[in-house]
Amino acid sequence: MAREKKAFPLRLDAELHRAVEKWAEDEFRSVNGHIEFLLREALRKAGRLPGKVRPVGSDTSENQEM
């Protein structure tokens, strides 16, 4: 089952876009696909993907002692 995609406009600085475009080309992805990949990786590393278990020791109120 394919995931639903949400379209929205994104404004980037031209220099930032050129850097992402080159990186995406190096990874054989579209710019859009590479931005999505980078965001997903950042969210995964931060333990913020919906439905995912947060890593042990993450800084949440549930894990903090009072």
TrEMBL record:
GO molecular function: DNA binding
Arc-like DNA binding domain location: 2-49
InterPro entries: Arc_DNA-bd_dom (IPR005569), Arc_rbn_hlx_hlx (IPR013321), Ribbon_hlx_hlx (IPR010985)
Pfam families: Arc (PF03869)
The entry's keywords: DNA-binding
Record-annotated membrane-spanning stretches: none
Keyword field contains S-adenosyl-L-methionine: no
Protein's name in the database: Arc family DNA-binding protein
